[in-house]
Amino acid sequence: MDTKYHTRLTSENSRIIVLDYLRVFAVIVLFFFHLGMVWVPEWNFHFKQETQWFWLQHILLISSPWRMGLLWFIAGTSLYFMQQKYGLAFLLTRRSNAILLPLLTGIYCIVPIQLFVEMTQKGAIDTSVGYFFIQFYFGANDYFNGFSAGIWHHVDVNHLWFLRSLWRFTLLLIIFHLPLKWVRNSLGNFNSVWLLLLVSISLFASQIEESDLQRDIYGFACLVWGYLFGGQAQFWRWLRDRRGALIAFAIILTLSYEVGFKVVGYQPDNLLIKTIALWSYYLAKVFSVFAILALADKVFVTANPAVVKANGYVFPFYVIHQSVIIGVSYFITNTALSAPTAMALSAVVSMLLCFLLLLLCKYSAVTGVFLGKKAPASHWLSGKTAQMIITAFTLPLALRLVGLI
């Protein structure tokens, strides 16, 4: 086994134990963040309920800077291990299929639920879900006036932007494989310079007004850092040696932007406090990710079969969770329940519905593959013919994502 790999690996399949835990942790955080987005005041979302729960903003802000950066770092590390084990052709074919098929399923079967709820709440439509889906698939484009932004007209990614970007980033890793290999072999030992470089890229991205580009530059940088360093024992030793400092600095940054944004709420003209809060937030987008990695390396030291098994369901959970939350919350908030009761019930019902859908993925390999769960090696969907069919089926989407159609 390559000595560059992290030393805490399961003996069976060379998985990095800490990343298995963090992958599950990250999507659970994302679930509750998106649940909170329904009820948090002022922040835009596809479905909103009016509250004065400004305290909820501060709870969501705890994870806001780092939740996606952590996912990108984990994704980069995973891509590195895939490339090392299976080669670049695997990333271009099977891994591409494993991303594009759930994305295609999502934009046509799952994300539309969010569009229905959003259009209904904003008074653009007053129809049944069934009639809406007929219009979505077969109706005229003018039915969606004002809601037409998307990959295709009114067919959008919403929360699945991560999969769109992940596929594009995977192509970039393939294209720049040789330069990245040279960097890893020649300059691969992680040090503070690499950390400051990532901070600089994150700060640069934060100044870009176009939100998708801002998000993608930061995400791609975190993914590349995971690809370069996530599989190296030296990186994890570096984190271990600086664990206390990283955690302390992350806490200071979190307190700085939390308190700063609170003060700005009362003193909107206080530019000094606003600047301190914003820059603390931007710095936390990197330092908090590294602090969480360092802390997790301390806490998650023993492999857990349940966690390893749960990793197989992270992808489909990500695909379905936001639409489930919005659909369930829309239905429940149409009742006469109080806001706290409605939020709690929405959380419970959404979790149960996600669990049932994941069970369907477990017992139906076809459903699982369409939502992003890997099929058993013996299943026909893992065969070359099925993979070629999936490639042909997703080719129009792939061409669209790179701007060729």
Descriptive notes:
The protein has 405 residues and is mostly helical. The chain is 73% helix and 0% strand. The protein is built from 18 helices and no strands. The chain has helices at residues 17-39, 54-63, 67-86, 88-92, 94-121, 129-138, 161-175, 177-187, 192-206, 211-229, 233-241, 243-266, 271-299, 305-311, 314-333, 339-363, 365-371, 384-401. Helix 5 crosses helix 18 and helix 9 (192-206) runs antiparallel to helix 10. The radius of gyration is 22 Å and the shape is globular. The model is unreliable at 1-7 (pLDDT under 50).
Sheet with the most strands, sense and barrel status: none
Beta-strand content bin: under 5%
Number of helices: 18
Unreliably modeled segments: 1-7
Roughly what percent helix?
Answer: over 70%
How far apart the termini lie comes to 44 Å
What is the count of β-strands? 0
Element-level helix/strand string: HHHHHHHHHHHHHHHHHH
What's the gyration radius in Å? 22 Å
Indicate the mean pLDDT.
Answer: 93
Shape: globular
Structural class label: mainly alpha
Quick synopsis:
With 405 residues, the protein is mainly alpha-helical. The chain has helices at 17-39, 54-63, 67-86, 88-92, 94-121, 129-138, 161-175, 177-187, 192-206, 211-229, 233-241, 243-266, 271-299, 305-311, 314-333, 339-363, 365-371, 384-401.
Produce the secondary structure layout.
Layout: H1 17-39, H2 54-63, H3 67-86, H4 88-92, H5 94-121, H6 129-138, H7 161-175, H8 177-187, H9 192-206, H10 211-229, H11 233-241, H12 243-266, H13 271-299, H14 305-311, H15 314-333, H16 339-363, H17 365-371, H18 384-401
Helix pairs in contact: 1-3, 1-13, 1-14, 1-15, 1-16, 3-10, 5-6, 5-7, 5-15, 5-18, 7-10, 9-10, 9-13, 12-13, 15-16, 16-17
